[in-house]
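The data layer described in this paper is built around a simple, fixed record for each protein. Because each token names a local backbone shape, the row as a whole describes the fold. We quote a single record here, exactly as it is kept in our systems:

***
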Amino acid sequence: MPTDDAVERERQGAGTPGTDVTKDGLRGVRPDREAVTGVTTGRPRGGRGRRRRGGETPQVPDATFTSYYAEPVINKPVWEAPDIPGYLFLGGLAGAASLLGAGAQRTGRRRLERSSKVGAVAAGFLSLVGLVHDLGRPQRFLNMLRVFKVTSPMSVGSWLLAGYIPVAGAAAASAVTGRAPRAGAAATVAAATLGPAVASYTAALISDTAVPAWHDGYREMPFVFVGSGATAAGGLGLLTAPVAETGPARALALAGTALELATFERMERRLGMVGEVYSQGRGGAYVRAGTLLSVAGVVGAVLGRRSRVASAVCGAAMLAASAATRWGVFHAGMQSADDPKYTVVPQRQRLEQGEPATGTSTTTRTPAATTAPSEAAEA
């Protein structure tokens, strides 16, 4: 005969090993082999469950987001630092510097023209070096030039770099040597025409992945990158040109900083929970550093416009601010890819609102979800 205690346990459902089944609900049940996908529930370890007002215990405990066998929900990009964040930063600097160089040529600011054009081709070339190094073999970059796909940001970007670097180099060579002025002027126009696309296409590139912090920020990311590139190009002009010629560089840096900070703030607010990765962890540290350097650079550029030393220091601060922003965006994206809640929660919110579950931040682990440049090069 079963004892009274055994009958009571059976009546309450406590007879199943490893579970906690009571009249108040089911707690602590784990699937076979303790596999967890997405959300787990249960009392916090070493504590009691939360209670509603009046002392009532809720039927559903707080959710804790994990993933199946501790694996990310989406494929994390294989990109690494410093190759890819450097590629993002230098591409923005190159494109914006070509615009600044064209303006300096138009207004007769020769020192600013030379430094901007040389900086543009150097940044463009180093950006390509970072990309090729991440790909592993130069042949992989050449493979991406075999076809041109308008729907592929990586394909468009590869062709942009392939066309931009030669004309930027010709413009810089003419500015430095003084030879072939007509060819140099034509190359300057070509580089300035391609410059905005070179400065912004990397935003489309990262937004075309399944990484939540990048994908969900697709609306503001191009403006953030263009503003960051303008800040860097203006900083380069302040650092290298004499005070008498830094007017356009200062104006570009101030406009770029304002655009970058405003759109970044808007993006963080719109992303909600996903946007918190831009203020936490390694990504958040870089973003905060970029903001502080940007503000310091703006203040110094306005107050120290007559001082060569102050202009140079402010220019260096703005270059560093732009680089910190790109590193921050990169690491914040990686953080959001590692944590499944940034994929699962937005998906469930859309379902609760009656919207399709598919969309940004909902692409699960498929090879095509986060196609990296190295994978595209071998396709």
Q: What stands out?
A: The longest helix spans residues 308-338.
